[in-house]
Amino acid sequence: MYKVLIVDDEPLFLDFLRTVLNWESLGFAICGEARDGQKALELTRKTFPDVVLVDINMPNMDGMELSQRLKQNDPDMAIVMVTGNAEFQYARDALRIGVEDYILKPFDSDELFLTMVKIKSYLQRTREYRQRDRDHVLWLREQFLNMLISTNLSITEAETRGQMQRFGIPAESGRYAVITVEIDHLYKRWSDHKEILLWKNTVSNLLHEIIAWPGQNIVFFGPEDRIVSLFQPTPDCPDPTGETESLQRLCDMVKKHFKFSVTVGVGSLQFGYTGIRASYMESMAALQSKIILGTGGVIRYQDSDRTPHGFYSSEINEKMMLALRLKDENEMKQLLEEVFRYVREQRLSAEMTYVTVFGLVSICLSHIVASGKDIGAVLGDGFSPYQELQQQETLDKTYHWVEQISLKTLQINNDDNKPSRSRKVFEEAKLLIEQNFRDPGFNVEEITKQIFINGSYLRKIFHKEASMSVSEYITHTRMQRAKELILRKQVSVTAIAEMTGYSDPGYFSKCFKKHVGVTPSEYEAQSKAGNSANFTNV
């Protein structure tokens, strides 16, 4: 229900506005009335209306000044100017202020009805845009946080600080500790991605509320359906990671009330932004050791450090996830061969081999769920990695078993309503190119900084989605715009070069001919001759 404030100095007209429509049936409710602009301004601070119907001629503060001040306070507030003055100057001033509509007295109920229907559409559209903007910011925030724990921090410390401030994250380059929570046997317990998301949100909310350490606690979703906490203690706080009582309480509460278990890996306290990645890797090393120390508890990195070593590089996991997203079968097979060659060369124990294999299978299961698919539908009803792994008699058979799981995962169809992560990154990058191609300095590195993505991953996405490199796509966008400007015949080639991101007109002409097949002047001449249709899609 949208709230409406009506403002007019004539009592009879206020009565008319109040009763002329069935406001509730239209989705509106009258939240207040005022007879002058000053009282109306005060009333908006108490009632927070979505729509204000404003008369122009009023005592103390007229409708023009009131509308201007209301728009300054809340640009999204819809204002309908109601007046008996039909002079064009009033209408022009109202539009300049940002008034949504202008209705002349006298008017009947139909005119007001149509006006309010239009205003309702405006409010609905504005809310949708605001929600989309909020969702976009949340997505970028999670992308940024995942970049902080990823392999390479591709932006400078100053840029990192700026992005942290942008997303409301404490930006002091001080001390950080990373806590990673893993829901034990996640894919064995649930296969529906909506149910998995529900429980991830539940654990995430508990983790956010339950940490009793003094400082800032930022919780987000990390790779492979894990929940990650980036914790920054207060300057006067000693190392809090030695106190794990609150984290153990999280494990106990989940087990008691939800009947499943979580294991928490705690990285050590590190310094600076680069220390975030180091602490995250320590928390992952702690989690890997749960095969020895058991599940359903808290494992500090110092504890895991005393367990037998022998884990392959975590970068292979990241490369494996990338290969699955991009459906790169050759890369996936090479990575599997590398892992199993490591197992042989290091002569890992059966226990360590199981940990390694379960890590690979977990990546596949995570990808299936993230794609919105049912694990049983992809890998077979009743799929149980624990039981099936026990049935593999040799390392070669184990390799072929993992390879088959990986191939089935690779072949799942991602063309459902939920866009893949790579597609979403592609669309975000395209939008940035559309917004920034006029800047001569705009390049691939700028895109990677703004959407927090690895450069090589971005290039693979563009080859997959657009069958061209990122640089080629930027050039393609510039050339398309250049062709449009040439056909308008309103500006010079020099101006067009500047408007499409080229500071040197000669270089622009050279690029244009390479891309289109003719020079800008030849293209313009052919358009005059009526042949431009042969080139507009080049």
UniProtKB/TrEMBL annotation:
Pfam families according to UniProt: GGDEF_2 (PF17853), HTH_18 (PF12833), Response_reg (PF00072)
Residues recorded with modification 4-aspartylphosphate: 55
One GO-annotated biological process of the protein: phosphorelay signal transduction system
This protein's record includes keyword DNA-binding: yes
GO cellular component terms listed in the entry, alphabetical order: cytoplasm
Limits of the Response regulatory domain: 3-120
Coiled coil: none
Record's keyword terms, sorted: Cytoplasm, DNA-binding, Phosphoprotein, Transcription, Transcription regulation, Two-component regulatory system
Main location: cytoplasm
Location(s) in or outside the cell: Cytoplasm
An example molecular function term from Gene Ontology annotations: sequence-specific DNA binding
Domain of life: Bacteria
HTH araC/xylS-type domain mapped to chain residues: 427-526
SUPFAM superfamilies membership: CheY-like (SSF52172), Homeodomain-like (SSF46689)
Record protein name field: Response regulator
Organism: Cohnella luojiensis
UniProt lineage: Bacteria, Bacillati, Bacillota, Bacilli, Bacillales
